């Protein structure tokens, strides 16, 4: 890891980068959902950036993100929070079949520190940015007195799954992936979990 790498809380000024990272982390699912809810004259990306910047009630708000930065450049970020039942809503409309398997898996992760999104920009990969973000996410979980951390990964993303397994994440369950416009090919979502040691609180 470069000595210049810094992990810090996100700020409103990071909202544009975080919107891109959220879409990268979800393999295009965020774009699909943004387009479904966008109103005429409002680009989907701008709607999501506005939510990240100012909607404190939304789990995607910048206060739930940690950013990896080197000098003035954002390299990647992670979005995480303690998952509760209030975060689960029944999907409706054209996105329902896509979100249903994800919600089933999230229902198994209630009470854990849930990593909803983590991604690193292509030009920063291979520099231990992802593993650094995961370490800081674990620290955030401990600070919140949570002793289990969870995340989801697609079967079509073996590189990410290999990283998670290398630092102690184990498979809990999986559900069939429902393809959407512009998505990866068929596969399945995998819910992974890691029990944390040395919890504070």
UniProtKB/TrEMBL annotation:
Family matches, as InterPro entries:
Acyl_CoA_acyltransferase (IPR016181), GNAT_dom (IPR000182), YpeA/RimI_acetyltransf (IPR050680)
The protein's organism comes out as Pontivivens insulae
Q: Which PANTHER family match?
A: ACETYLTRANSFERASE
EC number per UniProt:
2.3.1.189
UniProt superkingdom: Bacteria
Gene name, Swiss-Prot/TrEMBL: mshD_2
Could you tell me what this protein is called?
Answer: Mycothiol acetyltransferase
Domain spans labelled N-acetyltransferase: 5-197
Alphabetized UniProt keyword annotations: Acyltransferase, Transferase
Q: From the Swiss-Prot or TrEMBL record, what is one GO molecular function term?
A: mycothiol synthase activity
In Pfam terms, one family for this protein is Acetyltransf_1
């Amino acid at each position: 890891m470069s000595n210049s790498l810094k992990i810090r809380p996100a700020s409103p000024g990071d909202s544009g980068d975080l919107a891109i990272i959220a879409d990268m982390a979800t393999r295009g699912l965020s774009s699909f959902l943004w387009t479904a809810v966008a109103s005429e004259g409002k680009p989907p990306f701008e709607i999501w950036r506005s939510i990240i910047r100012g909607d404190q009630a939304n789990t995607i708000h910048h206060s739930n993100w940690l950013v990896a930065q080197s000098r003035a450049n954002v390299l990647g970020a992670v979005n995480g929070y303690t998952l509760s039942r209030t975060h689960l809503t029944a999907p409706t409309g054209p996105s329902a079949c896509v979100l249903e398997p994800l919600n089933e898996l999230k229902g198994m992760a209630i009470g854990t520190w849930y990593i909803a999104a983590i991604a690193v920009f292509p030009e920063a990969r291979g520099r231990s940015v992802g593993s650094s973000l995961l370490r800081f996410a674990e620290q955030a979980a401990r600070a919140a007195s949570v002793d289990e951390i969870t995340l989801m990964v697609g079967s079509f993303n073996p590189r990410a799954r290999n990283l998670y397994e290398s630092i102690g994440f184990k498979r809990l369950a999986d559900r069939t992936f429902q393809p959407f416009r512009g998505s990866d090919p068929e596969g399945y979502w995998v819910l992974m979990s890691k029990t944390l040691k040395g919890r504070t609180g």
